[in-house]
UniProtKB/TrEMBL annotation:
One annotated GO molecular function: hydrolase activity
Annotated protein name in UniProt: RNA helicase
Organism: Ostreobium quekettii
Spans annotated as Disordered: 464-491, 545-585, 686-717
GO biological process: mRNA processing
Domain Helicase C-terminal residues, every copy: 206-380
Domain Helicase ATP-binding: 16-180
Reactions listed under catalytic activity: ATP + H2O = ADP + phosphate + H(+)
Swiss-Prot/TrEMBL keywords: ATP-binding, Helicase, Hydrolase, mRNA processing, Nucleotide-binding
Length: 717
């Protein structure tokens, strides 16, 4: 599509006028109208990038990279020059950069180093309707920043649909611009069946029927995730190949999901081959963030995969759930961008009207808030996290859960004030527990090892197909096929020291094999993910080095300030040699487990021998089993599993499981336990230390229940 003909272009003048007259502007325009790619160019052309960069946030890293790539092409410049991007662990910008696409998480991080965001003249918070946790936090942070930087900072909020009024009220009654998109009528066809038992099969049937019987026009099918999409692509290709010759045109089937390599992802933007129909099978990424052109038929099973977290039990889940009316409308709208279209909904009209929610719950109301709360606590204004100016306030229980975890990790003190340790944790670009483990590893003298483990954990999907290491588990169940295959990875997996040590050993062996791709393939590892782990490793090492240098610099200043009085006193800062006199030195793997133990103290679980399971120490946590995708944890000579483990994730629906586990020693656990008793969450919220006239005038939620004390975890005597 020619960028000049996009609806946003026709409204360039209005947009510029609104931005000139107000420091905050909300722009609402249909998906595909050109918000992400055109607005920054319009602003840059009008000179808004002259005194500072224009930064545009995206909730997904791939959307940020893809938008930067597209805009650099449109402007005819090299990616990384005038147009660049920065996402976690990856950046391509230069001193020439005027338009910079970033993830919302990255902009939050930049705010820590430069609270005024002084390198930017315009901030555009894009895809605001998605209401990602990070974008929601940015709303509050930028609202106060716009007020303090006055006219020097322009803020644009761009969104695909709906509630402009709510945003405008929140942002000091700012102007709202509505940019209508091109929208042809879309006929909605609901199924008559009350219960579609297998939505994937049903979707495939509709696609085939459509392909054989309907006039030309591309198809867009919404499924829930990578595995499902790959399977669907395979099934469709096979089904089309099985059709009698000459029944219909060829069908080009393309997958589209966030983890797809960039080259494959951009195929959906290429013109459909002559005499061929295209069918794109996508996740909800195609709902608003990536626009597939020329779609005439949409197949909508009405489902989406959604992460949620229960703060009362500490359990997370990744479930296929029913979409909301807003999403259903967005999906249907995708069929009418170039001509009248049709949307086949695999649910009844009655289901749509009676069972579906109106809007999707914002992420802030269904996720763990540990990182977000640590972030807010780190901002220079001592923010009372219970009264931060949220667009929609999170649940009280979720805030309390986050505060309790941060206290256990030592990131905040008993009065809820951020500690030196907490500040250091916030500076590392990983979740709080992993950051704590990295800092602990400096003391345990296994930093190199821990950085490898953190990189491997951050790379995700290391194990091809199975989602977990081969050969498992304590109960003797094995994964069948992989047991016979004797390769380096299966041999390592049998050592039985849990996931962290296994990840470390895998990386070290791969390094020893000269980072050979063949080594990964033979071991059933994803070459792409392993390479990503190597890139992250390099980046993280630099982050840790920076942190150390800053800490060392500060210690130096302090020491000279305090003069001779306190000479010889130990600093509380991480330091490579600070635990030399800490008793017998541990071997590298035990040291690593110890650092992991300290880092994941908020996710400790105690063996319940009688139930062959573990009970996490979090209040309200259920008795759980080790998940089959966790690495083997060896039993002792009595056949008992280790008494203590730490885990990354407690998840599940009916049956709770612990995933990514590491056995830890009793002597490391005991010192951690006293801290977990008698936590007074009301003190932790930090309300008491809030300075008068802080940036958060609106009491978004009341300050808590009865006495503010949390239910206590069941601690072993
Ligand atoms: P919005 O943000 O309003 O949803 P975008 O600015 O993302 O719209 O997209 C505007 C148009 O540019 C759409 O028609 C889309 O298909 C097209 N487009 C976006 N990215 C690319 C790309 N990487 N390659 C080709 N076309 C693209
Ligand atoms: Mg967009």
């Amino acid at each position: 599509m020619d960028p000049a003909s996009l609806p946003i272009r026709a409204h360039a003048k209005e947009i510029l006028e609104a931005v000139r007259g107000s420091s905050v502007v909300v722009v609402i325009g249909d998906a595909g109208s050109g918000k992400t790619t055109q607005i920054p160019q319009i602003l840059a052309k009008a000179g808004y990038g002259d005194d500072g960069k224009i930064v545009v946030t995206q909730p997904r890293r791939l959307a940020a990279i893809s938008a930067a790539r597209r805009v650099s092409e449109e402007m005819g410049v090299r990616l990384g020059a005038e147009v660049g991007y920065a996402v976690r662990f990856e950046e391509d910008t230069s001193s020439k950069t005027v338009i910079k696409y970033v993830t919302d998480g990255l902009l939050l991080r930049e705010c820590l180093a430069d609270t005024e965001l002084s390198q930017y003249s315009v901030v555009m918070l894009d895809e605001a309707h998605e209401r990602s946790l990070n974008t929601d936090i940015l709303f509050g942070v930028l609202k106060s920043l716009v007020n303090s930087r006055k006219q020097a900072l322009k803020l644009l909020i761009t969104s695909a649909t709906l509630d402009g009024k709510k945003f405008s009220e929140y942002f000091m009654n700012c102007p709202i611009l509505n940019v209508p998109g091109v929208c042809f009528p879309v006929e909605i066809i609901h199924t008559m069946e009350d219960h579609v038992s297998n939505y994937m099969q049903a979707a495939m049937d509709v696609v085939l029927d459509l392909h054989v019987n309907q006039p030309p026009g591309d198809i867009l099918v919404f499924l829930t995730g990578q595995a499902e999409i790959q399977k669907a692509v395979e099934l469709l290709n096979k089904a089309v190949a099985d059709l009698p010759e000459d029944t219909c045109d060829a069908l080009q089937v393309l997958p589209l999901y966030a983890a797809l390599p960039m080259e494959q992802q951009s195929l959906v933007f290429s013109p459909t081959p002559e005499g061929c129909r295209r069918c794109v099978v996508a996740t909800n990424i195609a709902e608003t963030s990536i626009t597939v052109n020329n779609v005439v038929y949409v197949v909508d099973p009405g489902t989406v995969k959604q992460k949620s977290y229960n703060p009362l039990t500490g359990m997370g889940s990744l479930e296929v759930v029913t979409i909301s009316h807003v999403q259903a409308k967005q999906r249907a709208g995708r069929a009418g961008r170039t001509q009248p279209g049709k949307c086949y909904r695999l649910y009844t009209k009655k289901f749509h009207d009676k069972e579906m929610a109106d809007i999707t719950l914002p992420e802030i109301q269904r996720t763990s808030l540990t990182s977000a709360v640590l972030y807010l606590k780190t901002l220079p204004l001592a923010i009372d996290v219970l009264r931060f100016d949220y667009l929609d306030a999170p649940k009280m229980e979720a805030l309390e859960d986050a505060l309790r975890q941060l206290y256990v990790l030592g990131a905040i003190d008993i009065d809820g004030k951020i500690t030196t340790l907490g500040e250091q944790m916030a500076q590392l670009p990983v979740e709080p527990s992993l950051a704590r483990a990295l800092i602990a590893s400096m003391e345990c003298r296994c930093l190199d090892e821990m950085v490898i483990v953190a990189a491997m954990l951050s790379a995700e999907n290391i194990f091809e197909d199975t989602g977990g290491p081969p050969d498992r588990d304590a109960a003797g169940r094995s994964r069948g096929k992989s047991e016979q295959e004797d390769n380096a990875v299966t041999r390592l997996a049998r050592e039985g020291l849990g996931d962290h040590v296994l990840l470390l050993r895998i990386y070290q062996e791969w390094e020893r094999a000269g980072f050979a791709p063949g080594w990964c393939r033979r071991g059933g590892l994803s070459v792409r993910s392993m390479r990503r782990a190597r890139d992250i490793h390099k980046q993280l090492k630099a982050n840790v080095r920076d942190l150390r240098r800053r800490v060392a610099g500060r210690d130096e200043t302090r020491r000279s300030e305090k003069g001779s009085k306190k000479r010889g006193r130990h600093s509380d800062a991480p330091h490579e040699h600070s635990c030399e006199e800490r008793g017998r030195s541990l071997d590298a793997q035990s040291a690593l487990r110890k650092a992991v133990c300290v880092g994941f103290a908020n996710r400790l679980a105690h063996r319940m021998a009688a139930h062959n399971g573990y009970r996490p120490l979090a209040p309200g946590a259920p008795l759980s089993q080790l998940h089959p995708s966790s690495a083997r944890v060896s039993a002792d000579s009595d056949g008992l599993l280790p008494e203590w483990i730490v885990y990354h994730e407690c998840f599940g629906l009916s049956r709770p499981f612990l995933r990514q586990v590491c056995p830890v020693d009793d002597e490391w656990v005991q010192p951690l336990l006293p801290k977990m008793r008698n936590i007074e969450v009301k003190r932790l919220s930090g309300g008491a230390s809030e300075p008068a006239g802080s940036a958060c005038p609106k009491p978004a939620v009341s300050s808590g229940g009865a006495d503010g004390a949390l239910p206590q975890p069941a601690l072993p005597a």
